[in-house]
Amino acid sequence: SQELEQSPQSLIVQEGKNLTINCTSSKTLYGLYWYKQKYGEGLIFLMMLQKGGEEKSHEKITAKLDEKKQQSSLHITASQPSHAGIYLCGADMNAGTYKYIFGTGTRLKVLA
Amino acid sequence: NAGVMQNPRHLVRRRGQEARLRCSPMKGHSHVYWYRQLPEEGLKFMVYLQKENIIDESGMPKERFSAEFPKEGPSILRIQQVVRGDSAAYFCASSPRAGDLADTQYFGPGTRLTVL
To answer: What is d(CA A21, CA B73) in angstroms, rounded to the nearest whole number?
Structure first.
């Protein structure tokens, strides 16, 4: 079974709409990372969360980690075509580990 | 500041041939990680290396796969006698250190291997 579940698997939104992507674990996470993947460009690091209740923002993207450190959400405000891609959550499952576990990704398409 | 570099970006091999994938970490990074992304699956950890040392290869298939990170030059992921099931995207990541949340892994663009 997948240790990190992402939802939805795919998402199509109209430009200007807000959207949320979720990442859920059955275990407490030590650290949670959000990446964006575009074909041919590899993974682009977006944000890292480590404290329960933490929230970070960059431009129009906000990521939150719940108090129990088992669920994270990525929220995009006023989406643009440039936001299109695959969003991946990755996690440290144990302190001091380097083996990131990844969700299967959420494919986002933004219609102009 | 150049990011993680991988080459080739695309590699086509026939069954039984060898594939060599290269990764140059970001400047100042001495830790390298290889991940594999099979079609319709998430990224899976393969191996973690420091200069001249393999720290953890628990994610590597037992046969045909090997990795190195020499004192000079890029890290190499080598796949001998490739089979169709090896077709995947292989990503390299690097960090300044490991085991510290502050040391996020930064990924390269990947090498897409196709085995005919």
So the answer is: 39
Scan for tokens 């930064």, then name that residue.
B106
B71 φψ region: left (φ > 0), alpha (ψ -120 to 50), beta (else): alpha
State pLDDT tens for residues A50-103: 889 999 998 999 999 998 889 999 999 999 999 999 999 999 877 666 788 899
Q: How far is B114 from chain A (nearest CA, A)?
A: 14
In this complex, do A98 and B9 lie within 8 Å of one another by their Cβ atoms?
no
Burial class (CB in 10 A: 0-12, 13-18, 19+), A33: buried
Q: How far is B81 from chain A (nearest CA, A)?
A: 26
- Cβ of B109 and A99 within 8 Å? no
Q: How confident is the model at residue A29 (pLDDT cuts 50, 70, 90)?
A: confident
Rounded alpha-carbon distances, angstroms, from residue B14 to A72, B69, B113:
42, 26, 11
Q: What is the pLDDT of residues B27-47, one digit of tens each?
A: 888 899 999 998 777 889 999
Distances (CA, A) of A27 to A2, A51, A105: 12, 15, 19
The answer to whether B38 touches B86, Cβ cutoff 8 Å, is: no
Whole-angstrom Cα distance, residue B116 to residue B16? Answer: 10
